[in-house]
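This entry is passed on directly below:
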Amino acid sequence: MQELMLNTNTLPDTLHSRISADRVSVREENGTIILTPVTKSQTTNLWGLLPDDKFTSEKYLAQKRQDKELEP
């Protein structure tokens, strides 16, 4: 499973109430799902190209889908 980012608002209330970050990184290791809180500065560093709020994870995923459609 690839690592992905989720907005914590999409999580059930029991999880959402325990996570103070706006987003979590989700990954699988040996059959265990791991949620890791991600701070805003970490997401900016992940993209590393544009200032805050200009290139969200949603925009990144939309761009990746467009790139995939263009592949032969």
Q: What stands out?
A: The chain has one domain: 4-70. DSSP finds three helices and three strands in the chain. The first helix runs from residue 13 to 16.
